[in-house]
Amino acid sequence: MALRAILARSSSHPAAPPPSSPTPSPTTVTAIRAASAAKPAPASSPAGGAYALELEVGLDAVRMASTLCEEVQAQLMRQDETADTKDDRSLVTLADYAAQAIIAWRIQQEWPDFTMVGEEDAEALTEGGEGGAQTLEKITALVNKTLAKHKGDAAPTLSSTEIVAAINKGGGKGGKGRHWILDPVDGTLGFVRGDQYAIALALMEDGDLKVGVMGCPNMPKTGEVLEYDSSYTYGFSPSMVTKMLAGESVGWYKGCIFAAVKGRGCTVEPCDARIKAAPTPVTVSDAFDPVSAKFCEPVMKANSSQGFTASVADNLGIASKPLRVYSQVKYGSVARADADVFMKFPKAGYKEKIWDHAAGVIIVEEAGGKVTDAGGAPLDWAGGRYLDTLDRGIVATSAALHERLMDAVSKSWSSSQL
Ligand SMILES: Nc1ncnc2c1ncn2[C@@H]1O[C@H](COP(=O)(O)OS(=O)(=O)O)[C@@H](OP(=O)(O)O)[C@H]1O
Ligand SMILES: [Mg+2]
Ligand SMILES: [Mg+2]
Ligand SMILES: [Mg+2]
């Protein structure tokens, strides 16, 4: 792999006061009530049930990875660090490797024989000459620093050999059986631009998603993500940190972790463990009003046909502009009803990867939503590393709106074929 350094876009983010919550949009006329379709949300955290340990480990692992990513994103913004390109010319940073390493290490503590389908591998670090070796050294230091921060005296010091082994745990083939699915930094482009990204972890058993944990370190506590673009990378003010350390409520914060367990609902809580806030149940939008409805999609035209999604939105009567957001934060936005619909229609021939969707999908489903391909079929998690049988694209929405969305997709597809 070529380790060609790319300068992260320079970005100045003026300190801004915490934004206030946006006014909720009214729901009116053509409202489709989805309440009966939505699962009853539990009073607090999904609390795991039979998957309590998996949930606890997943939250711990994703929390550590979030800390590590925040540190690297700040370095990128200061231009103290750079991104590299992989053989497929996509971006990769220290954080992508280090987050995969720390999450795999944490899972291995509980399940030494676990298998994982993860995005990254360590080839560029072991076969990449001096540049690769230097990058591995930085990753090792970053992982150990993060472990020390989170585990204190109990923190081990991992060797670079252990780090390589942990990263390479992501090389699983998937298929039937029990596999963790990991995108250590989803939306790497957003990450290097100081924007939205997600750490997306899921557990799949025989094709069924059982647990999803998604860290979104730049997602605000409330409101739509695009309203906060000037404040993504500013930290907490000194007075907020003082309050947090004293265990006081700070009201607004940025940095959310979504957690979902099959059949037990979905919750959201702060990424930063210093913020004392109980996990809050989230549910998808319970009504559809085209006037106030919003849909989200990838930022890059190369990743999804923006013309096609505009046509589908038009068929649904959605008047507002799309929310173009990096990463699986889009699924989080649908899960907590900031948006009504997420659509992605990649170019023909592009093979979607399971780690780009697994955590987001169980989060939306457990929030009362439905995620399918463009033909209405559920996604096939047991087919290996790719979603090989996917029909055209992926749509996520409330269970109640799904059929209407399918009709809109069919209508747009027919007219685009004419
Ligand atoms: N050509 C093409 N078509 C569709 N999808 C692609 C394509 N190339 C890459 N990818 C995958 O898209 C992941 C990022 O998705 P996003 O929704 O964040 O895209 S965007 O940057 O907002 O446009 C991104 O995930 P990360 O690599 O984790 O960032 C890729 O796996
Ligand atoms: Mg990538
Ligand atoms: Mg991804
Ligand atoms: Mg990624």
UniProtKB/TrEMBL annotation:
Keywords: Hydrolase, Magnesium, Metal-binding. Its cofactor is Mg(2+). The keyword Magnesium applies. The keyword Endoplasmic reticulum does not apply. PROSITE patterns: IMP_1, IMP_2. Mg(2+) binds at residues 119, 183, 186, 356. One of its GO terms (biological process) is sulfate assimilation. One of its GO terms (molecular function) is 3'(2'),5'-bisphosphate nucleotidase activity. Gene3D superfamilies: 3.40.190.80, Fructose-1,6-Bisphosphatase, subunit A, domain 1. It catalyses: 3'-phosphoadenylyl sulfate + H2O = adenosine 5'-phosphosulfate + phosphate; adenosine 3',5'-bisphosphate + H2O = AMP + phosphate. It comes from the Eukaryota. Its EC number is 3.1.3.7. Residues 15-25 have a biased composition (Pro residues). Residues 7-28 are annotated as: Disordered. SUPFAM superfamilies: Carbohydrate phosphatase. Belongs to the inositol monophosphatase superfamily. This is 3'(2'),5'-bisphosphate nucleotidase. It comes from Micromonas pusilla (strain CCMP1545).
